[in-house]
């Protein structure tokens, strides 16, 4: 019988999904039936039916990918209270990484709140160190961290004294204390005092420009963005190693030079790995984006339950929390909260080889990023790099090699962070230089992987290909909360960056299709990765299928069976059942019908705008005509966004070329519907004229692009700019010419 000292730290719970399996198989059967009908009818129809057959074959393949990803969903329940009672486990040290790149797009007050939430988590303070990577080298960001360090001396004790659950102060102070709390006079006095202190703290950061001449910012006086030496500043140090003190806080701005590649976020993460390796060298690392604050104060304890809770450590190479958002707009009008993807597909992929690495909210084993592969009986090994000299692997820093050897050999002597960080600053600056990685394995076999804008997916793929598994950390309340992009430009920019990076992964030597045969990536996990990696390629099928009904209405032909034909029931049943299937998934995630529709239409908008331009960007890169550019997504405090815009859920536009394709698709279908209705009115005879199916499909496309319909008549940022409309009109006229439209007289 299990005692309290050997009770499991986590429990793997399979999720029943019999209904989803049955409905998925039914939809797959209907898809195959439609393809069979297309195949047997090709000889009596023109090339339009062949195009429809190819598109529907592609959609069937995508459906198979999703079926595979959702087939065996699992979740894990963690027991942090058992972890604290285990005498055989000494809580390990954890290095926490926060990354920011642009103080204008990522306001320092947001970064400061994220840092404060991490400094206040429920974990021994002497075992934590927080490193902030500032890729913008901004004095404002540095100043905000200085102020955050001072405010933390008040905030952290306040949180732990009153067991505050929301430890990002801007969220906590956005509402009055809950009536369920013990609202003693002492608490209310402390609460008002702390709120006043936070407001002062926030004002100082907002007015930070006036502090540039402070002595503390002297090192930034000659800093030029993209061209500066390494800056490593120990802002806060727990020199006494107090368990109930404030964790270390270190500012890191890596060296940047115009002629040296810096590899975007992946390069910043590798610098953090090296700097922390020579300063605190914790065996575990947590990385979050600057807007992703710790929402559950026990999050690190929960993460440790999954990292220590398996008999074989290969089962938990890394622990990933889903990306969830605070202050999110109701019904997800921009389709970027990814609730169903993470709530339904995520646990399903967790039943294969584990969730993808999402780039934030993830716990890593340092030794895995140093190249260790899982061995027998849970003992990791380092065979792939064993024949290389240490300098060719880690670089020429003796201190870094010694710390890495300590991790990869499993001989971890210390379970707390170093108490003398200042003595390591010189070495840290050297490993943060822009030339340190030359002729080493950084970015290739160790560290965060280079070669894609989605360095997170590529790095996670490499870890899975080494034979490690990952685990999904689903908590209530959520582990971390961030800000979702709002407005059209920000949402489309984010998806364009993702699609560009995902296609780079698919076409690279690290592609899952290669790793399945040459490494230890499971075949089903390869299919799971393809769910997201083929996003850019899906734009072709989506665009062609959205133009098919318009072509048929303009060219007076058809690609759907007539409503009078018995076979019409196949596409009709497929349309109804697939939408009901999607609706049930949204209901399971606690979402509304409106949220389901918003995500369905945004999926089509993303496919024919962001994903399409991501595909074009990679093609231009392959042809040597252009280089991909990393675009930082704007991050705002959601409450501020909602206050400044009377209708924050309404789509906004700018002059981005991505809006041209979406506007053109809408205009084509509007013109096609007008022509089709005119033909019906004129009762034109002869030929395979379009029927009900073509009209329904074209109307469906128009409704899917309803934000663009409103944009045609909108004003200001809610209206589509005239240059975009004119360029789209040119494309529409070319398409009409291609259709060979003969106007009805």
TrEMBL record:
GO terms for molecular function: cellulose synthase (UDP-forming) activity. GO terms for biological process: cell wall organization; cellulose biosynthetic process; plant-type cell wall organization or biogenesis. The keyword Isomerase does not apply. Pfam families: Cellulose_synt. UDP-alpha-D-glucose binds at residues 106, 135. The active site is at 135, 456. It is a multi-pass membrane protein. The keyword Transcription does not apply. Keywords: Cell wall biogenesis/degradation, Glycosyltransferase, Membrane, Transferase, Transmembrane, Transmembrane helix. Its main location: membrane. SUPFAM superfamilies: Nucleotide-diphospho-sugar transferases (SSF53448). Mn(2+) binds at residues 265, 289. GO terms for cellular component: endomembrane system; membrane. This is Cellulose synthase-like protein H1. It comes from Cocos nucifera. The lineage of its organism: Eukaryota, Viridiplantae, Streptophyta, Embryophyta, Tracheophyta.
């Amino acid at each position: 019988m299990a005692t309290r000292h050997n009770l499991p730290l986590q429990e793997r719970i399979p999720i029943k999904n019999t209904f989803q399996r049955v409905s998925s198989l039914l939809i797959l059967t209907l898809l195959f039936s439609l393809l069979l009908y297309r195949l047997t009818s090709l000889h009596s129809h023109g090339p339009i039916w062949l195009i429809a057959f190819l598109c529907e074959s592609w959609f069937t393949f995508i459906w198979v990918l999703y079926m595979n990803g959702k087939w065996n969903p699992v979740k894990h329940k963690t027991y942090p209270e058992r972890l604290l009672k285990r005498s055989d486990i000494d809580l390990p040290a954890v290095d926490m990484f926060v990354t920011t790149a642009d103080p204008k797009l990522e306001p320092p007050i947001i970064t400061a709140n994220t840092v404060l939430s991490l400094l206040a988590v429920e974990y021994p303070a002497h075992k934590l160190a927080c490193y902030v990577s500032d890729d913008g080298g901004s004095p404002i960001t540095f100043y905000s961290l200085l102020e955050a360090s001072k405010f933390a001396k008040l905030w952290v004790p306040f949180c732990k004294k009153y067991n505050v659950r929301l430890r990002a102060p801007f969220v906590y102070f956005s509402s009055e204390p809950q009536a369920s709390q013990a609202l003693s006079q002492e608490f209310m006095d402390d609460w008002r005092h702390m709120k006043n202190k936070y407001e002062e703290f926030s004002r100082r950061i907002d007015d930070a420009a006036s502090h540039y001449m402070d002595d503390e910012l002297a090192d930034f006086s000659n800093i030029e963005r993209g061209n500066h030496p390494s800056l490593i500043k120990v802002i806060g140090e727990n020199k006494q190693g107090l368990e109930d003190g404030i964790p270390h806080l270190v500012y890191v701005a890596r060296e940047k030079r115009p002629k040296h590649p810096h590899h975007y976020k992946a390069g910043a993460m590798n610098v953090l790995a090296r700097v922390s390796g020579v300063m605190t060298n914790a065996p575990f690392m947590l990385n979050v984006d600057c807007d992703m604050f710790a929402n559950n104060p026990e999050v690190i304890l929960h993460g440790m339950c999954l990292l220590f809770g398996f008999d074989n450590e290969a089962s938990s190479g890394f622990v990933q929390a889903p990306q969830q958002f605070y202050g999110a707009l109701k019904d997800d009008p921009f389709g970027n909260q990814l609730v169903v993807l993470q709530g339904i597909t995520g646990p399903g992929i967790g039943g294969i080889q584990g969730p993808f690495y999402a780039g934030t909210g993830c716990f890593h084993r340092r030794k895995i990023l140093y190249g260790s592969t899982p061995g027998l009986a849970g003992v990791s090994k380092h065979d792939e790099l064993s024949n290389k000299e240490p300098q060719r692997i880690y670089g020429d820093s003796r201190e870094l090699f010694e710390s890495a050897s300590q991790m990869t050999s499993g001989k971890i002597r210390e379970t707390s962070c170093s108490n003398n960080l200042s003595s390591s600053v010189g070495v840290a600056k050297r490993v943060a230089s822009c030339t340190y990685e030359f002729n080493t394995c950084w970015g290739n076999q160790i560290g965060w992987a280079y070669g894609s804008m989605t360095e997170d997916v590529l790095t996670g793929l490499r870890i899975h290909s080494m034979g490690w598994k990952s685990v999904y950390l689903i908590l209530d309340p959520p582990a971390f909360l961030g800000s979702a992009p709002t407005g059209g430009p920000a949402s489309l920019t984010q998806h364009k960056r993702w699609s560009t990076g995902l296609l780079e992964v698919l076409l690279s030597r690290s592609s899952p299709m290669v790793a399945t045969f040459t490494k230890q990536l499971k075949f089903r996990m390869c299919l799971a990765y393809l769910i997201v990696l083929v996003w850019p390629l899906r734009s072709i099928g989506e665009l062609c299928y959205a133009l098919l009904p318009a072509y048929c209405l303009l060219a007076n032909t058809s690609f759907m069976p007539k409503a009078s034909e018995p076979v019409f029931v196949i596409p009709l049943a497929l349309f109804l059942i697939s939408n009901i299937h999607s609706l049930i998934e949204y209901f399971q995630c606690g979402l509304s019908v409106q949220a389901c529709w918003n995500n369905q239409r945004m999926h089509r908008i993303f496919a024919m705008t962001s994903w399409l331009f991501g595909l074009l960007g990679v093609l231009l890169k392959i042809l040597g005509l252009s280089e991909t550019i990393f675009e930082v997504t704007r991050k705002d405090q959601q409450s501020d966004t909602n206050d400044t815009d009377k209708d924050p859920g309404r789509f906004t536009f700018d002059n981005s070329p991505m809006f041209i394709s979406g506007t053109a698709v809408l205009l084509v279908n509007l013109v096609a519907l007008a022509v089709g209705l005119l033909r019906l009115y004129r009762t034109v005879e002869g030929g395979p004229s379009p029927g009900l199916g073509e009209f329904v499909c074209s109307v469906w496309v128009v409704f899917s692009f309803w934000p663009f319909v409103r944009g045609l008549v909108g004003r200001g940022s809610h209206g589509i700019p005239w240059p975009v409309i004119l360029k789209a009109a040119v494309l529409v006229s070319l398409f009409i010419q291609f259709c060979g439209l003969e106007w009805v007289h």
